[in-house]
Hints:
Helix content is 62%, strand content 5%. α6 crosses α7. The longest helix has 28 residues. The protein is built from 8 helices and 6 strands, in the order ααααβββαββαβαα. It is mainly alpha-helical. It has a two-stranded antiparallel ribbon with strand order 1-6. It has a two-stranded antiparallel ribbon with strand order 2-3.
Amino acid sequence: MEKTTMNPKRFIAQAIPIVGLTVGICLFLFLLSLIGNGSDYFVFWGDAANEIFADAGNAAVRSTAHFNWTFIALFAVIIYIYGTELKNKNYKGIVAALSLYGVHWLYEIANAVIGSAAGYALWTVSPESTSFILLVGVSWELSLMFSIAGLAMSKLLPDDPRKKILGMNNRVLFAIGNAAFFAVFEIFLAGTPAFLWTYPWWGAIPVFVTTYIPFFLAAFLVPDLAPNKQKRFLAVVWGLAAILLLVLIPFGVI
Length: 254
């Protein structure tokens, strides 16, 4: 059996366009933040003034005070979507969905732990904007959106996982592109009363790099792995999320 060795020059050649694109998008977001500073509709960075509103979000975690029947209707839609994909044997799409959703849950748990330890989470949802807050940073509606985000966006991928676009693997390119789209959309969300950033160093750029890129890398890379590796990834991610939820919620940490 031949041993595969990493070629440093090849690795650098492959990394340069990826790093360049990522840095370029960060610079674009930074320029947007300068241009849009003071906008009534777009928020690029957190603000300590939001702490009073974040307190309300913290107090409303898993409260049923704002429950309404859209909770059931949206859940039924998600069941229909997953059922349809399973019937059509779109197993790669299901893996894409569950990969992103599992990573998303680990991030939400980490965000809630940060909120518990530091007083405020990196992101917080407001109680008035949702029928139910699952954890401090994720509402029922947001969670259901993320449950199908990987599935929906994976449908845009080229069939050939090895195809290169602009010198980059298409899976990586699409992950960065989708991450940028979601980060830009979050700029709008942060400008509404529904979604809050409280730390001045947290905003569109760290969201893009540290949150959404990993989300979509999981959604786009895992389905191309061998089936046993797909199962291992999902078992680890979802197993860890389940253990953390079963331990941290009863102890009042999150």
